[in-house]
UniProtKB/TrEMBL annotation:
Presence of keyword Coiled coil: yes
Species for this entry: Rhizophagus irregularis (strain DAOM 197198w) (Glomus intraradices)
Coiled-coil annotated residue ranges, if any: 95-122
Keyword Nucleotide-binding: no
Domain Protein kinase: 71-367
Protein name: Kic1p
Assigned keywords, A-Z: Coiled coil
GO MF assignments: ATP binding; protein serine/threonine kinase activity
Amino acid sequence: MLSSKVFGFCPKCKKPNSHYHWCKDCYSEIFQKNFSNWTSENVFIDKFIQKLQLNARNRFELLEWIVHDRLRNIKFLAQGGFSTVYEAIWLDGLIDKWDYENQKWERETEELDEQVRDVIDNKIKNPLKSDEKYGYYVVLKCLDNSSNMDDHFLNEWEIHLQCQHKVTSNGSILVPLIGITKDPDTSNYMVVMVKLPFGSLRNNLLLKKYNPNDKYHNLFLISTQLEAIHELNLVHGDFHSGNLLCHDHELVTISDLGLCRPIDQPNIKDGIYGVLPYIAPEVLRGKPYTKAADIYSFGIIMWELTSGVPAFHNIPHDLNLSLDVCKGIRPEIVKETIPEYVEIMKKCWDNDPEKRPTAKELKNFFFKWIEKYKIEEDEENRIPIPGIIFFNFSSYYLMSYY
């Protein structure tokens, strides 16, 4: 079998592993035996986590219940429309494999910098103790009014995991969800995700402008991920550069699937949601959100990668801008942008949704351009980003699908 050639055999049952150091059947039994040792105090969440653990074929297809007391240096990052985002350090770290000799999980952590351990900041909750020297950097998304979470609240994460699997099978990756915890102060539940070191694409636009060939790799991977979401007959619904996260200068991943839904399902939230410069004109006119609306947003992101600034950053995001977009006003083309690039960008933000390319067509365009406009290997000419902490989840996760 192919899996045994790639992943080897389980040391316990001798059957082919489903992933590196991962036996789905044996690990499922280990998780099941531990079900009685934890609870989220919510039957829907317990069943959700348990189902994933029983069916996980690798460590990124499962969630864990994470005790809030095991989180340190919790710090506010951003406030969204329906959630609050924090960064933190998880002392236990991500599951890697089962240690049969010691009968426990081996986990991925890293040694924490002394500056992180010695930080004194009254804005930080649960600061690290002096003897806590290892951990795993995570992001916490606190869900508003989720103390009585039901199936409806879990829908976003069901969709995220569904997209995560599809995107990976297509040769790319989404930011993995790794657990759920509960804020003891508010009783709201928090989804725990891997923290990516570069932050959002929006925060790195200037770097993309001055490292121009990076954008072809970035757009190829983004379009690959968007293609997978569209193949599931889903639309993202809130596609902008702030919802694209950077692992390194090449790997950019789609995040925040809070408005992601089937194309035949109307938005359950009343009104038009999203960041105005990225909202397609037909949506502003009250038409349903479609795959083509995601492509319009993609075109705006293409422009930002050439300009180094967010679209329409210098004017109010108000009714006048909405009217201008509906009339066909678009960001001004940056001089010296490659004509071929401009042509594709303009097609993406065409007023007529039927004239926009598909995500698959965009993927094919940028795949060709990766070879045509190769990134120079001379790293001395690249503008660096200081203070980066690298995680190895992308290479670990993607290898099994090539």
